[in-house]
Amino acid sequence: MDAILLQILNGLDKGSAYALIALGLTLIFGTLGVVNFAHGALFMIGAFCAVTFRGLLTLSHKATEPSGTDFLGNPKFDDVLYVQQWFGESTGAWMIDWAVPLSVLFAIPVMIAIGFIMERGLIKHFYNRPHADQILVTFGLAIVLGELIKYFYGANPYPSPAPAAFAGSFDFGAMLGFDPNTIIYPYWRLIYFCFAAVVIGAVFAFLQFTTFGMVVRAGMADRETVGLLGINIDKRFTFMFGLAAAVTGVAGAMYAPINSPNYNMGMDFLVLSFVVVVVGGMGSLPGAVLAGFLLGVVESFASMAGVLEIIPGINQIIIYLVAIIILLTRPRGLMGRAGVMED
């Protein structure tokens, strides 16, 4: 039982990242009808927002030490962090320690701006083009973005530590009545799952309970009719592209302590995110979230040592096998709508 619970926790952890990326991807496809193969790159950029924000917080300048001079009579200099100089030593140290959570506030406007630029500068020219054209141009954009990150940040991963308060592990088993140290799980992975749940809930609440969201959902169902009512649905869909980029970006920023950001991490999540979207059903937001968590749990169980002893390497292909089985039995995915990508 303890091994099963541990794998469920691992699956929810992986599924949180899959679900957030797939949610943003489905928002774009459901509103604009664009197959965005650059979406994994947005996850990568979000992770590097955390790296950049921490770099800004650790900027320093040389200042003369009050202790005097060295043995040669030269003045001593010390590195003084700007953030500690401006906000005080204790507050500055706290901000650096909590750089990853605080980077979410930095990532949101940055990712919205990037989303607007992508949509207005490139994506809008491919609305009426075949999906194959959309895939080619967005995949090329993903490669360009990856190479830009490699040029400015290098090829090596950037460690992004979680706050010291969440650096350890939580005795999950003891809370459930198991023996101590039976189920130990990192705090930050639990935080990431809770964060994903909050973001997913906020997106669904926005679409369900706000006037803006209801108009967007109506436009997703029948864009032409909404346009005939005098509503500029294109502007609302452009905003949704920015929102989708922000959702994926903050997912990447909070994921930085789990997987050190590198220029190739967008490609690592790209194919998996599309598998999640297809399994959930193209254009279905609940389907994307459900499939994300489902495939995360399935992949986690397939990674167990006992399973790998019986079927070596099954953890590398299990997601694709599940996708094949689901699509053979339900061609539209778990919660797909009729007519989506069936022309």
From TrEMBL:
The chain crosses the membrane at residues 15-35, 42-61, 98-123, 190-216, 236-257, 269-298, 310-328. Coiled coil: none annotated. The keyword Cell membrane applies. Belongs to the binding-protein-dependent transport system permease family. LivHM subfamily. GO terms for cellular component: plasma membrane. It comes from the Bacteria. Keywords: Amino-acid transport, Cell membrane, Membrane, Transmembrane, Transmembrane helix, Transport. Pfam families: BPD_transp_2. The keyword Transit peptide does not apply. This is ABC transporter permease. It is a multi-pass membrane protein. It is found in: Cell membrane. GO terms for molecular function: transmembrane transporter activity. One of its GO terms (biological process) is amino acid transport.
